[in-house]
Amino acid sequence: MNYKNREELRVTVDYNYMMSKSLGDKGISDAELSAVADKAAKAYDYVAKNRGRDDLFMGWTELPYNQDEIVADIIKTADKVRKKFKYFVVLGIGGSALGPIMAFNALKHLHYNELSDEKRNGPKFYVEDNVDPVRMQALLDVIEPEKTCFNVISKSGATSETMTQYLIIADILKKKGVNLPDNIIFTTDANRGNLIKIDNSYGGKFKKYVLPDGVGGRFSEMCPVGLLPAAVLGIDIKAMLAGAAYMDELCAKGEISSNPALACAVLQYITMNQGKNINVLMPYSDNLKLIADWYCQLWAESLGKAVDYDGNTVNAGTTPVKSLGVTDQHSQVQLYTEGPYDKVITFISVGKYATEMPIAHGCEDIPDVGFLGGHTMQELIQAENKATAYALMRAGRLNYTINVPEINEFTLGQLMYLFELQTAYTGALLNIDTYNQPGVENGKKATFALLGKKGYEGQKAEMDSAPALDKKYTV
Ligand code: PA5
Predict the structure, then answer these.
(1) Global pTM?
(2) How far is the CA of 196 from the centre of ligand 1 (A)?
(3) Which residue, 85, 116, 266, 288, has fewest beta-carbon neighbours within 10 Å?
(4) Which DSSP string corresponds to 60-126?
């Protein structure tokens, strides 16, 4: 794609409706912004100084720049996969799945798998990120395993969900006489983890991509985790990385007034300190619907932390909520407008949709309907987006808008990097470890104990000795 005309494709942030100029005493004053400028500059410095540090899990910052060879190799592999296979299935969960699904939904036809082979021009695509047996069976009902390339994505190779899927698929393939390395690609840690052990047992025959040491799952969409599935779909991954690099450039300064990610982080930080503990992301685009899922993980897992770097109990974080414009105007906006003052709403607005859809004239004698004829669906969705933001502002509700000129690889790369940087800055403002996830680990260990994994006997005994559930509280 042509992303040379970068300025026209620039993603911008409009936060007028966060400010007291629009919201009166419900908004943020310039003085409040100035009061955190020093802290914001320090958060910016922290991220700038530690860029690319594997030991801090900040390797993600460099992904737009340091993958030329990997990208070339991925494109070659993707070409082969596209020619050889009828289906491409990602087996992964969390950071290993939400990125690939998000990019698929954003950049491919919304009914991609239902298109004719000719129109689709690539393998059917599925991402399995659950262990619901019904869903697994549903997948098996629609694919032909021997004609499927499975991309097992797991940094640890120890995630029960992903490895369960792997075991089931490997067994099916073996029973069909398939040599596993012919149909399976691993994306995993370079040296550690169980996928490497499996590969070793096959004499290193599996095609493997590396999930770099210093890149955590939720920050991994722009490494092979996301790049391989995207390339198999025919997505221009170089343009996506170029978009990320462009956003990095747009965020090169430590001032709120010139750094969109820092501005977003500061807005979230100020409002969370005021007790606004719900963070809604509401794209006005079906293509961007799943960016909200990806963002929710990024935000929740990064910022929901019990303690800060100084050991203080902070129980930091705000609750991310996904919402879709205009659909959720009819389900949630009533609450956003009149419910508690506990939310910040981030809209994502699209300047130009990929398709224009004129609204036919008709029903002229019914004024409620007739006025629509002659407009377009793009005009309608954009008007509803503007009107909702305006109505919220009039009701004193904090909201800001991320403007995306059009949805393509270059702007998606910008959006992802914007959200990643915003999360990193917010974590630095909160003085917490943005990159660990101790809360998730505890749940994983409890599952291991329940399923009798060796080494978790102590945990199992502890769970067994917990007070018995009281029937009194079961209805
Ligand atoms: O963001 C994260 O770190 C997690 O969501 C992981 O990606 C998820 O738990 C899967 O882990 P793994 O890649 O080790 O299978």
Answers:
(1) 0.96
(2) 16
(3) 116
(4) GGGTTTS-HHHHHHHHHHHHHHHHH-SEEEEE--GGGTHHHHHHHHHHS-TTGGGS-HHHH-S-EEE
